[in-house]
Amino acid sequence: MMTRLRRVLVVPLTAALIMFATGASAEYPEKPISYVIPFGPGGESDITARHQQPFFKKKFAEDMIISYKPGGGGAVGWAQLNEMPGDGYNIMGVNLPHIIVKPLQKDVGFKTDELTLIYMFHYTPDAVVVKADSPFKTLQDMIDYAKQNPGKMTFSGSGKGTANHLAQVTFDKLAGVKTTYVAFKGTGASVTALLGKQVMGQWGYTSVGAKHADKVRLLAVAMEQRHPRFPDVPTFKELGFDIVSGAYRGIAVPNSTPEDIREKLSAMIGEINADAEFKKKMEADGFALVHVDYRGIKAFMDEKKDGYVAAAKEAGVIK
Amino acid sequence: MDSLGYLFAALTPYHVALALGGVVAGTVVGSLPGLTATMAVAVLIPVTFSMEPASALILMGAIYTGAIYGGAYAAILLNTPGTPSAIATTFDGYPMAKRGDGDLAITLACIASVCGGLVGALFLLSLAPPLANVALAFGPVEYFWLAMLGLTLISALSQGNLLKGLIGASFGLLLSCIGVAEISADVRLTFGSQTLLGGIEVVSALIGLYCVPVLIDLVATPDRHLKVEAASRGFRLHEALQSSWQGKVNLARSSVIGTLVGILPGAGGSIAGLVAYAEARRSSKKPERFGCGEPDGVQATESANNATVGGGFIPTLVLGIPGTPPDAVILGALLIQGVRTGPNLFTEHGSIVYVFIWGLLIATLLMLPAGMLIGRYAYRSIVTVPKAMLVPTVAFMTLIGTYAIRNSISDVVIMIVLGVLGWILGRFGFSVSPVVLGLILGSIAEQGFVQGWIIGAAAENLWGEFFGRPIALGIVAFILLSLFSPLLLNRLRLKRELASAD
Amino acid sequence: MPTDRQNRDVGGMVIAAIFILTGALALWDTLEYVDADSYVFPRTVAGAMVVFCIVLIAWSLVRPVAAAPRRSESTPRRVGLVSAMLGAALLMPYTGFLISGLLAFGAIAWLAMYDPWTRGRLIIYPLVGSAIVLGFYFLFHKVLLVPLPAGKLLSV
Questions:
Q1: What is the average pLDDT across C16-26?
Q2: H or E stretch at B26
Q3: Which of A210, B53, B273, B298, by CA, is between 20 and 30 Å from B71?
């Protein structure tokens, strides 16, 4: 009994070791992939990963097992990423601007450049959200109010040094207004505050508009083009404010992962992204797909870094 | 379909099997310290992809409700809340077990859990849309005052030395600040340590502070863990039913408190249990017996925390705002299935919602026999296992359970260190419960205060923000009542005694 | 021999002094926060804690307490238990969860043993213990899909 048990335990582990030693195998992936989300279950990082899960299984015939390593606003997970085996069977979700801003505030156990990103698959565009019965019908209404009553316009948002907070700071500067930002613990709490009229508006995401469609109105979205789910909502750009921002989500691997596996994984995530049904499901929830693969990731990150760092300095969250 | 039709749809053998299996699995999961309802439900998500939404909801709801009840076992038998919801169950459950009434406490907990679960589910069935507004009426200030109401329990939990209780609670509040701040932009009190970066996870702290001191003392003496009577007394069902009937007002009040607190997205089962416990103690004729093995204390927390299950589903299904952490996971699973929550879910998708609610009611009823049997087994094994097997098993469970909460070795180290600290503090008359109270209420108090302050300052009306809102004032009234009613009662009693002495 | 009247709560005062130091350390930490939202709460709480501690020390100086009864208990076993648990946690990254768990289980079983080790117990306890550890390992690792650490130096 004991020996059989041991064999049950030993065989897969030895197989894993052999896999590790020989690197990529021809038929990668040949066992389930562990996908670690550095946040708790139920949040957007979890939900978008859960959207990928069935498509991964369908296309590559292996399971994607999602587990959670929350703590420190994601920092606990990212700090441990490079210690995980780089065999292609361990991947982790990454979020912008978190991985750029956090390491600049204090030593959080990792540096932005130490993370090996292989794909950015979507972002949740920032949006100004008000309740459906709010007197602000357009962004201009809100700006007019804020100009007449400096500091009185209150916005809820998720955390500080986050996409919401940085967008609020950038917007205040561009529009020449002074508004008050009230940080809540996560988007859920921030929406609840908006719906309960604790605040007058929310710096939220397009996904908020999708989830609470009958109760809220989006005044503007921070995208290049209008979101297909909200064809009537203008972009900030159309209204004269150069803001394209949001929370970007992607996937990273331990830095010991061989190059060919990085390429292959990147192509696989890209394949899921290209699936029309996946796109439809993601857009129905208010997300917007982006397709930044392993080759394009450096240029993408360099560009984003400059913008986020400038905004974070403006917001006073980094020195 | 009429409501009877929904009931029959929930009574199909498939759904009853899901409900029973869910309750049993949930009870086992909940009884293991560290395995929470949130985790059990999250593991199930891929399984539910292939199920009908109503069936998936029944399974997840049954697991959830079972897990909340299962948390009572470890709380009563090991002084370790299996889930945070059972914190207040330890206050009286463990003293009951120590004096040999563990079997009674478990049966009481089971009856109370079923009562609470039924009340919560019935509110969900009948009044969900209007009650969902409670979730929205609670702003930052109300949460702040709710946390303060919870802190009034310090005096009850400091075992005779209020100053030491206050010090412990401040220390707990300080512990809650450690790590990357949730709503501001700093990393606090880590002193450069990577171990502390993620902060102190509440469940692992509970395991450390409550369970490790018990283990440390168990290993030091050859005495038995719990006192046992020679003769087996079965479930002591008759005794338990009698006690439950006597405490029916307490049960009803606690269930309603649990439902209401469950609706609040920022609170959850632990707060529900604490508030119900505080209220039960305040309105009791024998408040001095709370904390020394008073059955009313167990009944209050266990009915309240199971009522949060039904209560938590109210904002989840009506507003798409999860009432408790497991609800957030269930909501995510529904979203992926393409089910959109909202008031029209109740009107247009009755076949999902009402079948689910009936299923939840059935699951709650099934918990009565299932829970008693499992509870009996848990009690017997804890009582009869020799010490040399019990101590390492529980120690191993704390290790694996703590690790599993966030898949973190740091949490395991923090758990052990806090355990040693808790033991040392206990030696010198500092009870650990105020520390736990501070740790749990800290982030709610801080966030509520900071947000309320910013909003009040923006409106140039700080006083009005903190003292001008009706619900906030109501909670403040309860705070004053809990603080001063013991004094008033004492004075009245003294007067009466003096009068009778004359 | 100190009588009851002279007995002071020295332990409580020492703990309070340690808490004062902790509070001071926390206050010092708050000085470097960049965001006003971050320091309001910890400063208030740390300040309150220091005040409570000072009052407790003053109170204990003027009011003696009854001495706690001493019991015969085994401190080495206590230290052993904590060391075994801590050791398991620190070994985990190197030997993996299963091995460190088994080692801790064995050590704690030995510490918690007050009955004589008969031959029957020597056979049954290790078997039952391994079954418990393996059972939980299987439950968490395979059923609940918890990624338990696998160990860098040794794998099962």
A1: 96
A2: helix B13-31
A3: B53
